[in-house]
Input
Amino acid sequence: MSRHPQGTELAFHNQAGALVTVAKTQTHTGHTAYPWTCHGCGTGDPGYSARIRSKSDAEQHAAECTALQITT
Ligand SMILES: [Zn+2]
Output
């Protein structure tokens, strides 16, 4: 039922059911980055090069965030 943005690697749900996603992107320097975004409150990080770090931060945010999903 949830629509995941393109490039989504991982997706979690926060307390209100909003998606917190970790995407995989390529930076202009050719490195892989894993930006995470909370689709409830809009919080996120433009990208860590370490997948485990983005996963950890996204997971932690999902566990604490209670913002409802932003519908576009
Ligand atoms: Zn949030």
Summary: The longest helix spans residues 51-64. The chain has one domain: 8-64. The chain has a mean pLDDT of 89.
